[in-house]
């Protein structure tokens, strides 16, 4: 066998996001895909791999047809919010194996507009069959499951509601200079705590926004990098893990599947958590950020509350910049948001985040390493990808 083929992210883009009342999910897929291809500067004819989930009966078939693609490699893995980190890992593996030259990952959703127009309700239901049948009769909603996990962490480790609120406050601070963020007005801990209760202990601002929007990421084999318009961001390592299907199967509410996917990703990349210059973490709720920071190894188990205090997650806050675009809590959250994590990580590593939002190292140079970690279901699955430049 010859030398291992390296894989790079060569194009990233978002569609119009936030409040988009006049577009279909297919249109948002297409808009993001066109922009990602333009960002890369590669011809569409080179794209022979495609991955998508969440739209249509046969997601990669229907969306690929809409985009005018005829891929010879496809993936429709659907594991909730971690879908896109898992798909990126699968795409990189396929390129390394020579099964594809360039793989496009695309997503689009009109989750907000659909509720507004009455095409769907605001309640997400996973049905009443399979493992869910043992929980649905007791009224467990998706948010209630996350709230229960957060409360367990508070009981076990003394984590406070003010510490969880700090995650929302700092996400909004990172969103403030981001023109693509849906909510940019600063908030305080007191304002987070004073909001309407959604699921104890979560008030409204502990929960992600509901938006419309799409994203696309293009990965390619290293031999095509020289033809690209942008500098490559290399996929250094990845990991994925599925931990449980029902809450009754979850051994410890204070440990997420990122504890496994993160360890695998860092080991395969040959780097340590403390070497990361920034982290993009799935944040449908504030507790997700806190516990994932612990499980990725940025602090010890039970130390997440102390870790997020005093502005350490803010760009320029002197700690670890987390969710530098504002995350799902403030920027946008149209559903399975994991692809947005990869877009933001790449933009940061390429130095394209813009004034007042660009992460820099202590010596003033651009970041070199980033981690994106997505979570799916109710902490059921996790995908983690380590990215680097240079």
From TrEMBL:
SUPFAM superfamilies registered for this protein in UniProt: Thiolase-like (SSF53901)
Family matches, as Gene3D superfamilies: 3.40.47.10
One Pfam family hit: Thiolase_C_1
Organism: Streptomyces venetus
Protein name: Thiolase C-terminal domain-containing protein
Domain Thiolase C-terminal: residue ranges: 239-388
Origin: domain of life: Bacteria
